[in-house]
Amino acid sequence: MSALTGILYAVLIAYLGGWYTGQWSGNFALLLFILTTVTMLYWLAERFHFQPARERAAAELLANDAKRREALAAQGIARVDSDVEGARQEILRQPWWLDWTAGLFPVILIVFLLRSFLFEPFKIPSGSMVPTLLVGDLILVNKFHYGIRLPVINKKIIANHDVQRGDVMVFRFPEDTSVDFIKRVAAIPGDEVAYLNQRLYINGQPVTVKSEGDYYDEDSMRMRNRFSESLGALPHQLLVDPNRQPYFQPDRKDGPFPFQDQCKYSPEGVTCKVPAGHYYMLGDNRDNSRDSRFWGFVPDENIVGKAFFVWMNFGNFKRIGAFN
């Protein structure tokens, strides 16, 4: 078993090394599921086979020592120098390959359950959600807000809240489901959504925006126009240049996106009818976000959860807190 455990650890290290160096794309949810399953098997084997076997061997050692002492006592020898307690403790000691597998099972199980059904940490990798979220923000994603889903296969088994316009949502990128994206829900199933001349329209009505003055964009190192947009229950901030000439064309790498026939592109922008079970996503940094305007709709099965809290930004502690 020690050799098998060594091989398993070598495979794990090779997998993580290749993932880290970009040799292949990893799937953390699947990896965590496999680690939970493997360590559980070791834990069961330890609980019902290896530990009882060690305890029987230790008990047999004590029984043999007791018999030996009785035999010596019958010969008039009352003092015996040998002490088997050290040997007993050595027999009961858990070998390294069980300590590093079965011993880790409770911790890995807790992490697996928390990440799969409650909360998942996520790091903001780009500036597409500025000014709401900045590069380097470490956020929490509520995994059960939109319903309970089975890990790995992401199948919803218990419904909860419906997705609402204005929600900040993490989802599996339709072009590559091994990558997580974060955007704001602009439109829900059945909506007609249009982004024309730098303005957002829902079902033919322009979404209310209000100027909030200038904003210094650290990525571009220049001042930007900041607005407050009333898309959902609470207003949120966005960056957009009202004078910028809009130009949007589908650019999905694997060809036309599903339901692309529900979208019409023009020199003014794009208009789409959101199909059932899909959502239209936009970044708050409207002029610097590759979103549904380019690659289409997000299916419901791609939902990861609702983002709601910045728990750390090592460059700016004032970023910690809830956001809209």
From TrEMBL:
Keyword Disulfide bond annotated: no
Region forming the signal peptide: none
Annotated localization: Membrane
Reaction equation(s) it catalyzes: Cleavage of hydrophobic, N-terminal signal or leader sequences from secreted and periplasmic proteins
Record keywords, A-Z: Hydrolase, Membrane, Protease, Transmembrane, Transmembrane helix
PROSITE patterns: SPASE_I_1, SPASE_I_2, SPASE_I_3
Membrane topology: Single-pass type II membrane protein
Residue ranges of coiled coil: none
SUPFAM superfamilies named in the record: LexA/Signal peptidase (SSF51306)
Enzyme Commission number, as recorded: 3.4.21.89
InterPro entries, sorted: LexA/Signal_pep-like_sf, Pept_S26A_signal_pept_1, Pept_S26A_signal_pept_1_CS, Pept_S26A_signal_pept_1_Lys-AS, Pept_S26A_signal_pept_1_Ser-AS, Peptidase_S26
Annotated ranges, domain Peptidase S26: 98-312
Ranges annotated as spanning the membrane: 28-45, 97-118
CDD domains, sorted: S26_SPase_I (cd06530)
GO molecular function list: signal peptidase activity
Keyword Transmembrane helix tagged: yes
Family statement: Belongs to the peptidase S26 family.
Name of the molecule in the record: Signal peptidase I
Designated gene of the protein: lepB
